[in-house]
Amino acid sequence: MSYSVKSEAPGDSDAVAEAQEVIWVQAAQGGDLTAFSRLVRIYERQAVAVAYRFLGNAADAADVVQEAFLRAFRKLDQLDDGARFRSWLMRIVTNLSLNFRRGRKRSEAAQLEDAFEPEAPGDWKAPGGGGWADRSASSDELKTRIDEAIRSLPENQRAALILFSIEGLPQKDVAEILGCSVELVKWNVFQARKKLKELLADMIG
Q: In the chain, which residues have pLDDT < 70?
């Protein structure tokens, strides 16, 4: 079955796109996999970008996004307003990314603890097989430093910065995704930018 909306005026492309998206959401809620795959194509790149900003690992980001779309499809009947699909999806991506990050931190902490408690004398091994001192500065050092600085921010500041300043979502949508007020989004973005300037002062002058 074909689901499409035709534009009747040259200036209403955004409105037509939104209307088309709502139609696809409604069709997907009825079990139409083709309609849902169109939604995936629209938002997959942004979803991966958001997850990557939180996790700093492309493979982990891809796994999180795959799980996010699976959850979105299974729970699509809970979405009352098809026009809110993007913010609803990004909330799922954000929550899964934060949960994944917390789980990874716990795993790394356990690994580090085990490394400093060898089973036998002389059995100490550096986590990950060593190589800490082998890291050399890359040509994109600034980008690396920025990514590291962003990931060092408190969760609420990092999430607000990624969704608003980097991904360009409206503050209202960011507030909905994070479950807070628009004023708190603004404050977290302000604090995040201030902290980044401090962390990167030696590189940005």
A: 1-12, 103-140, 204-205
Is the CB of residue 199 less than 8 Å from the CB of residue 152?
A: yes
Place of tokens 């036998």: 120
Residue 10: the pLDDT is 45
The alpha carbons of the chain give a radius of gyration, in whole angstroms, of 21
> CB within 8 A of 180, min separation 6: which ones?
156
Question: What is the pTM (predicted TM-score) of this model?
Answer: 0.71
Closest to 26 measured CA to CA, from 13, 15, 36? 36
Residue 17 sits in the same domain as residue 46: yes
Provide the CA 40 distance to its chain's centre, in angstroms: 15
Give the pair of three-digit tokens for residue 75. 């729970």
Q: Which helix (H) or strand (E) holds 195?
A: helix 182-199
pLDDT confidence of residue 64: 96
pLDDT tens figures, 169-182: 999 999 999 999 99
Q: Measured between alpha carbons, how far is 107 from 190 in angstroms, rounded to an integer?
A: 31
Total number of domains constituting the chain: 2
Structure confidence at residue 142 (pLDDT): 76
Domain-embedded: residue 7: no
177 burial type by CB count under 10 A (0-12 exposed, 13-18 middle, 19+ buried): buried
Q: State how far the Cα of 133 lies from the Cα of 117, in Å rounded to an integer.
A: 21
Answer yes or no: is 5 within a domain: no
